[in-house]
């Protein structure tokens, strides 16, 4: 089973074919159009099995799966102390495990922007995440922690670890948060401004079955998006029901 996450930087209807070579089972895309409101027939046909969530029809987060894979949207709460956070798209896959697709926003919050949005979401959904892959564009890194906040990137990583969910990248490459050697994003598409802000967190059962982890190459992808696609391949039984 191959899972990909990618912030396509908009106009996904013109870009989805670039992912064909991955032959992925599940693709999580940030900043993509809603297929149900698109006029592009090719995109509509390609997105025959999907879930989508967003503020406008032109930019949201989508989960796209090959035919035969069951995606079921989950009704997880997205409000914490009167504040509705965005963007989160939780779903069940084949009734076996969950995916929480993430695209973090400032969301007009003066204090709880980006990783603060996830911290709030985590507080009301920890009980739901025990068998969940948390994956997407977090727009965050431990380098941007602030000393006077308890919802920093480091705090989120720690709270996820407390329920057994850790970053596949950091576990596999034995790198520390904030000291990543492989960027996932280039600010203004500038090779001299690399950052690691896209992640896949997962329980131990997924780590044990991870057989391949790759990040897109700058030269190949920068003309298409400022983010690099992250591809993860897991060993699965033929029935697909393993977790």
Automatic annotation (TrEMBL):
Coiled coil: none annotated. Residues 4-208 form the Endonuclease/exonuclease/phosphatase domain. It holds the Pfam family Exo_endo_phos. Gene3D superfamilies: Endonuclease/exonuclease/phosphatase. GO terms for molecular function: endonuclease activity. Keywords: Endonuclease, Hydrolase, Nuclease. This is Endonuclease. It comes from Pedobacter ginsengisoli.
